[in-house]
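Q: Hi! First time asking for a complex rather than a single chain. Here are the components, and I think there are two in total. Is that enough to go on?
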Amino acid sequence: MYAFEIERPTTIAEAVAALAADEAQALGGGQTLIPTLKQRLAAPETLVSLTAIPEMQGLCMSDEGALCVGAATTHARVAAEAKAFPALAALAGHIGDPAVRNRGTLGGSLANNDPSACYPAAVLGTGATIKTNAREIAADDYFQGMFATALEEGEIITEVRFPVPTTASYQKFLQPASRFALVGVFVAQYPTGVRVAVTGASEEGVFRWAEAEAALSADFGVEALAGLAVSPDGMIADLHGTSEYRAHLIGVLTKRAVAAAI
Amino acid sequence: MTDVKMTVNGQPVLGQVEGRTLLVDFLRTDLKLTGTHVGCDTSQCGACLVHVNGAAVKACTMFAFEADGAEVTTIEGMAEPDGSLSRIQQAFQDHHGLQCGFCTPGMVMSAAALLKETPKPTEAEVRAYLEGNICRCTGYHNIIKAIMAASGQDVSAAVA
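A: Yes, that's all I need. Here is the structure of the assembled complex.
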């Protein structure tokens, strides 16, 4: 690793001030960033750790019935405490391995926006609101392609508000070496309609499968998906799977998610 | 360099670290606690697993500075006060849960974290919990058996 300074502010305001410095970078749980630093793929002058800020920790219910999760909350804590939203707890409980889940954070996952990460599927699949130190960003506006987000330089995710669905399921086809999703599908049913978000498949990162949403909003059942398929164009192809294979998995996992949610 | 203060295996320790000093390097190099191993250095293998404030973490993927003020437990802190092996360590010996032993500190720390959360795990739960601990010798069977035995479950009929 290149040398850098590290700071551990205890309030959001202090963190924002620290991140205003030149070449400063936010550090969540570090489960992606620390390996990246070891490979010298990043060279910040200052790392600003966001894990010692009490106001960014923990879960609560909003007045509108949304589950609010502090951005520095670990996956392990979401897995244990998101009882109001079991599909989200299950998703968090299958990220990485237990030690990774004790360090990795929701905000870190979203700020990185790995195209194969699990959390982006839940955030987009629920139409969650991403709260930062400066504003609120709708999930539909937040994800802007592989490793790209709407976050500005120095902007910190402080909390995510998940509207709790009537029923939901996340189905992950595990890539067993990385423990990321080879493909993952989040299906959530709301009184207003169904949302389907897909991770691990597209070269553009997480996306909504509009045709499946329309079919499932009309009739929430596995049969409603009959005949629907995603084009392999623009799907990731690597040694773990071709683009055709990933496109196929989207259909399979969406059906499994609906079956599990009913 | 930054000052850090933490409690390691019940003892208060002070140190000076660079921002980039990993917790595992602080433990091994500064504190000479070389029981915590560095296997892969890429967060895959779990040989560096320690407990920070009671939670299992990979010490190669956490900065020492992030453990400032924390309670850290390493494999050196696992034996009983009289120096005898802990229940989990004894079970690894009894059930031949190691061969070369390189992964064993991480396995024992992982097992301790598991049994704190789930005192009587099923075999499937043990296997799932160890997904971040890699062993290149044993094929895992005797490790699983040792952990099941340490949890007080009868493993006499278990297939090795």
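A: The interface with chain A takes residues 2, 18-20, 22, 41-43, 46, 49, 52, 55-58, 61-63, 65-66, 68, 110, 113-114, 129, 131-133 of chain B (CB under 8 Å). Let me know if you'd like any chain examined more closely.
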